Amino acid sequence: MAYNNNIMFIRYQLLARLVKMWKENELLERIDKLPVELHPRKQKPLGRCCVYKERAVTKYKTMAMMGFDMTDEKDETERLSAYAARMLAREEIDPEKSILSVMDEACSSCVKINYEVTNLCRGCAARPCYNNCPKDAISYDSEGKAVINHEKCVSCGRCHQVCPYHAIVYIPVPCEEACPVKAISKDEYGVEHIDPDKCIYCGKCLNACPFGAIFDLCSVFDVLKRIKAGRKVVAMVAPSVLAQFKYPVEKVFGALRTIGFSDVLEVAYGAEETIRREAAEFKEKLESGAAFMTTSCCSAYVQLARKHIPELKPYISSTGSPMYYIAEYARKKHPDAVTVFIAPCASKKAEGRENPNVDFVWTFRELDAVLEGMEIDMDACEPFTPEEHAGHDAHGFAKTGGVFAAVKNMVGDPSLQGTIIAGLDKKNIAALKAYAKTGKCPTHMIEVMACPGGCISGPCACNEGMAAIRQFDAELKKKEPGAGAGA
């Protein structure tokens, strides 16, 4: 689930600064000074050893905001202005570039997962930590306090479990701990790397890293360049937009028009087609004797099945996601346009790469930074209402239970029960593996979403927690039949 932290504010404030420089045609002239402007010599570094380290980290974060990663660095002395020039000149981003990557200068090289003894240790006579350690890794100092020898420790956790004072704490590597599929590990230098063969692009690591070292591939300037060049550019906005900004959705669409998008399409319009097709497929599967069917809208879940639970693939709906159908529609309506999908997650960047009708993918956090950098006051924007309307159920796709509810309503069976998996963690993944292995499930349909709460709580969402859910519910109510536009 998305949550606010200082790293996120710093990251998108940096992007907003870059967008403002670009808007004022001063990107090449000013970008080299940006690390120094953000970290003057007398400023105390935040979490780093010195101001010079902060500047180096800012350089690499700035590179990431322009769509580069560590594989693009051929010369450490190359200036940011040189990268900016390369970004402005490129026709497209390398299609082989990683969706998620670690900027190693920003990675703090967190210690390997282990256990530490805190000052709560009382040096008790029972010494259960010592007696239960299978590797003789615990000794005692001159004050009788326990000490762990990390050369011997295998992180089994027995000492942590038996300490009567809870004096031994578990210290994880945050990104590794957050990853549900063990796609992140250290190299010989202690820097984290993401294995693309394992990664499902759920984006949990983006928020988990306390030093902001993990980035999703950014194409903000690639889109802005095309708008500036006079190209027709169409925005396709995910249903979770209802919970992202503290303005009516028509104002958000108006702001997109102010940025320069030629047209704005609601992805919920594509969800209408997903509902129809998925309901028909569900009926067909049950009639053919299938034990159950899972939804296919969450691209992180589809990546999970493809890479980690291949035996689950026969149970996944073959129906395309709302992105698939809205992009298909956009290409027919605007054959020569550049299409940009806007969503709250990183996994859609992976899905978009596989779809020839999707040219670029932005996140809502990136959109927010663009609005700030271009100094667009959403309140002053002229409201815009897309000519294509979608119903309540289609907009509800963004919230946990919404996809199942939509299919259930289309099937027309009030007694239909569904299994809702809200969040791809180790426990839920184990359950999915069990369903696939046994071919048995408590219900005939499983809705799977990578994020607790659904897409409205994606890792790249602007709003968070209960505030997002309350706002989404209020906006969704307006989409109910008889409630006005969109009904």
Structure in words:
- Helix content is 39%, strand content 12%.
- The protein is of the alpha/beta class and 487 residues long.
- It folds into three domains: 130 residues, Alpha-Beta Plaits (2-Layer Sandwich); 58 residues, Alpha-Beta Plaits (2-Layer Sandwich), CATH 3.30.70.20; 248 residues, Fe-only Hydrogenase (Larger Subunit), Chain L, domain 3 (3-Layer(aba) Sandwich), CATH 3.40.950.10.
- It has a four-stranded parallel beta sheet with strand order 10-9-12-13, with helices on both faces. Strands 11-15-14 form a three-stranded parallel beta sheet.
- Helix 1 crosses helix 16.
- The longest helix has 21 residues.
Instruction: Provide the low-confidence segments as ranges.
Output: none
**CATH level 1 name of the largest domain:** Alpha Beta
Beta-sheet strand percentage? 5-15%
Please count the beta strands (DSSP E, at least 2 residues each). 15
Q: Label the overall shape.
A: globular
Largest beta sheet, briefly?
Answer: 4 strands, parallel
- Computed over alpha carbons, the radius of gyration is 25 Å
Instruction: Report how far the terminal alpha carbons are from each other.
Output: 29 Å
User: Order of strands across the biggest sheet?
Assistant: 10-9-12-13
Give me the oligomer status.
single chain
CATH third-level topology of the largest domain: Fe-only Hydrogenase (Larger Subunit), Chain L, domain 3
CATH level 4 superfamily of the largest domain: Fe-only Hydrogenase (Larger Subunit), Chain L, domain 3
The helical percent reads 25-40%
Q: Look at the structure and give the mean pLDDT.
A: 92
Helix-strand category? alpha/beta
Total of domains: 3
Using the 3D structure, state the CATH architecture of the largest domain.
Answer: 3-Layer(aba) Sandwich
**Tally of separate helices:** 20
